[in-house]
């Protein structure tokens, strides 16, 4: 009697393991177990449009979602930085799946708050081939040679050029791996005479490109920043920065960059929006842009009666001349990772596995405008190859790291100093060396004062934290 009883218990245990997956660990199947996944994301409806609905259609309803929205964290009333408010939300809500940016991803890895994905990948032989070359290496570099997150999409730019204008003026076509020096050198070979509303420009952005905005674009492509966040020292008086400033000053003086009076398009019809963009209208030889530029060109052709289409070319860049095979401009805005405290790690992996897989990439490559990290599913747009966006190895930019440490007022004060000194150089009232020394000294004084004031106001309600948000344009440095 006792033998039969133990036999039944043994059979029941085996059945449990086969049907319900009683063992735990990476790769446990969740098909017969209902789970509710808490997902940290910026907006609930957008989450379902981008990820949730497709996952449910493919995998059924065994995994349901509860979206923890990050909306409102930028404008918290307690005077906390975005990062502080974000961390508190994670601690309070304990989401299973975290959506992170490159800055807090690295921080969460360092704090031991994420689950390593390598055991799941090895156990299931999950295919990482076909993903944007270098992306996994970049994520592993941020994870101390281990993989803690995956990103289904990225955004990156490239150099667009007007083949018709290059042929008309007999200028050599751009090549892959263009640096900003290469771009400006080619731009100088185009004529500069004529009315600003009708003339041709060697380089033209969507909006007027001022000298300081050109400096920002060049420096970010080379991984330079204005402040070293670990020492809180301003570092613009260096050879690297001097070269960047000189290039922007020379470009401004040559008149080859589109920078008319005013702020550019500030409202109006779609037709007026298109008309305000010199490259789109065939009046700029080159621009640095994102894939949506191709959609804009298609829309302009359909909307504008007198639109004159032209042949377009795209090459990779802009690059750091010291490392022309890599780019700082391939950015990951959504890195998905598993919370180390999650009780639903296996279900969380099922979700991350799906949105980074081939089926998801195949569907989104048809309907979305993002660049998919899984290559081969969206090879072109209207016949224009997208290969240049994948040609360079992505490199993690440190520009926004530790930005919450900067005083709220610093960026505005820095810009005031920068604009004033650049104007003096432009008017030949100061040399660039003199201007850089002044910028360095005055910006450091402003930074030191701001840090002192920030410490004095720490914890007080109502303190502004705008510059600490991830969307701020404060740029901080690497030499």
Structure description:
By secondary structure, this protein is α+β, with helices and mostly antiparallel strands. The chain has 3 domains: 28-155 and 330-391, Periplasmic binding protein-like II (D-Maltodextrin-Binding Protein, domain 2); 159-209 and 257-325, no CATH class; 218-246 and 399-479, no CATH class. 40% of the residues lie in helices and 12% in strands. It has 16 helices and 17 strands. The chain has helices at 2-20, 44-59, 82-93, 102-110, 118-124, 135-142, 163-168, 180-187, 211-221, 239-254, 270-275, 292-303, 345-355, 358-367, 410-426, 432-456; strands at residues 35-41, 63-69, 97-100, 149-150, 153-154, 158-162, 201-203, 227-228, 233-234, 284-289, 312-315, 326-327, 335-338, 371-372, 380-381, 384-385, 393-394. The strands form 7 sheets. It has a 4-stranded mixed β-sheet. A 3-stranded antiparallel β-sheet has the order 3-13-4. Strands 1-2 form a two-stranded parallel sheet. A hairpin with a 2-residue loop joins strand 15 (380-381) and strand 16 (384-385). The chain is globular. InterPro entries: Bact_solute-bd_prot1 (IPR050490), SBP (IPR006059). It comes from Paenibacillus lutimineralis. Residues 448-479 are annotated as: Disordered. Keywords: Signal, Transport. Residues 449-463 have a biased composition (Basic and acidic residues).
Short descriptors:
479 residues; alpha+beta; D-Maltodextrin-Binding Protein, domain 2; 3 domains; four-stranded mixed beta sheet; three-stranded antiparallel beta sheet; 16 helices; 40% helix; disordered N terminus; SBP; transport; Bact_solute-bd_prot1; Extracellular solute-binding protein
